[in-house]
Amino acid sequence: MRSDDVLVVIGAGHAGAELAVQAREAGWAGGIALVGDEAALPYHRPPLSKSYLAGQAALDTLALKARATYDKAGVDLLSGRRVHAIDPAASRLHFDDGSAMAYSRLALATGGRPRPLPAAASGADVADNFHYLRTLADVDRIRQRFVPGARLVIVGGGYVGLEVAAVAVKQGLKVTVLEAASRVLARVTAPRVSAFYEQVHREAGVDLRVGVEVSGFELDHAGSLVTRVRCADGELVEADLVIAGIGLLPNTELAAAAGLAVDDGILVDACSRTSVPTIVAAGDCTRFESVLYGRSIRLESVPNALEQARSAAAALVGKERIHDSVPWFWSDQYDLKLKMVGLAHGHDRFVLRGSPERRSFAAFYLKGDRILAVDTVNRVPEFMLAKRLVAEQVTVDPDQLADDSVPLKTLLPSA
Amino acid sequence: MPKLTIIEFDGKQHHLEAELGHSVMQAAIDGMVPGIMADCGGSCSCATCHCYVDAAWAAQLPPVETAERDMLECALYPMDNSRLSCQIRITSNCDGLVVRLPKSQV
């Protein structure tokens, strides 16, 4: 590596910001540019649907790192810039304003974007009161209409939708959640956990409807505001504000067009290296082979983004730092701290420990005697133990697992 | 701005200035202190910003709340003076605060 080498990081979310600074820490001696299409200093996304939406977290507390930290690390922030194309043969990238930039090594941390709601494609998606929630700008627009008494319709009962519902109903909005599947959080949790969250939201005053598909929107005469949400069964729901949260699409187009191997995610190895030797990738935009689960996975997760970024930074200076940490996620709704570890896909047994009625329980997803994943609600110590149970592929006796009087710690092999 | 010293496990000292209202964790991240990871960004969810508060200071900081205590129970290498640095707010009383870092966070 020479000091006139340049590392360009495309994408300034959690993965990109960590990667840029950690590359310097790891010993990258050349220039580092961090390119992001948003104007703000790289920021924490999780609070967007929680404390920032609620007005409890000030903008300056959202920054991932202070501006001075990038200066100290010698990272040039190229904010508000969008990369249009990558030319790996020439080691150049082109911006959408026509300018170009040479790189020695490239890091892709392009993240994801909200999955568009098909029913909104015929005009609702440009209405002033229809929003997705992914960026700071999205939330700043949402907050203009996020006022007590406003009728908020949330399309999608996933984490983002439910977190927004919790904040909104606490602030006095009239909240309706429309979920197309037969239960909320259907993609990630067991029916028992979904039922718990449905009950919590209904008790809080949310009009939560499952099995309801949104088929269209009625707009005002000017076509600038959604007035009603139309459901497939003909029902109309009045709306002052609509937020759609139906999943994420990985931003892989740049990589695919540049000839990198892509399959619902930019394919990377355990050291965050792509199919092109000069390019690494990290975060929500990637797919990798999970040793733990024996299949390829794509995660939408802050901890994963950070870990992959650290591995990518090491790879850039020729070090192998294997990323094999167990996936984990969190969601705060009301007084409930939901923390999840592992991936439940493929489980054949479900074990509940503790009491949903008392808002304190752990839900275990097993395949045979092995724990694939665990959801904990207001049980932080058990979550930390669960991380080990999943990571170390511990086999357990399901009866002991279900018995709240048996300390979870005793099920670990070292105990 | 209050001054703050963070001492890594190997003894390396970092002298930082911390902004009022920010957390010790933010000051450490902004100061690029290795050994503070803070993966969850300060939402008391990951216990990767674990630190030990010097005895002289422990009593002067606001007490540990339930969520923090729960997380600390599961941190690596816990001690009586363990805290999560994301939960320690910088006030004007914090000038001179010294915290030490554990051997590792994960």
Structure explained in plain terms:
The complex is a heterodimer of chains A (415) and B (106). Chain A is an alpha/beta fold and 415 residues long. Chain A has three domains: 6-113 and 249-316, FAD/NAD(P)-binding domain (3-Layer(bba) Sandwich); 118-246, FAD/NAD(P)-binding domain (3-Layer(bba) Sandwich); 335-411, FAD/NAD-linked reductase, C-terminal dimerisation domain (Enolase-like, domain 1). Chain A has helices spanning 14-26, 67-72, 136-144, 159-170, 191-204, 253-257, 302-316, 380-391, 398-402; strands at residues 6-10, 31-35, 75-78, 83-87, 92-95, 100-102, 105-108, 112-114, 130-132, 151-155, 174-179, 207-210, 214-219, 226-231, 236-238, 241-244, 248-250, 266-268, 279-281, 286-290, 295-297, 328-333, 336-342, 349-355, 360-367, 370-377. Chain B is α+β, with helices and mostly antiparallel strands and 106 residues long. Chain B has one domain (3-100): Ubiquitin-like (UB roll), CATH 3.10.20.30. Chain B has three helices and five strands. Chain A binds chain B through residues 21, 25, 44, 46-47, 50, 61, 64-66, 68-69, 72-73, 302-303, 306, 325, 330, 332, 337, 339, 380-381, 383-385, and chain B through 22, 26, 29-32, 34, 37, 39-43, 45-47, 67, 70-71, 73-74, 106.
Report a brief summary of the structure.
The complex is a heterodimer of chains A (415) and B (106). With 415 residues, chain A is α/β, with parallel strands linked by helices. Chain A has helices spanning 14-26, 67-72, 136-144, 159-170, 191-204, 253-257, 302-316, 380-391, 398-402; strands at 6-10, 31-35, 75-78, 83-87, 92-95, 100-102, 105-108, 112-114, 130-132, 151-155, 174-179, 207-210, 214-219, 226-231, 236-238, 241-244, 248-250, 266-268, 279-281, 286-290, 295-297, 328-333, 336-342, 349-355, 360-367, 370-377.
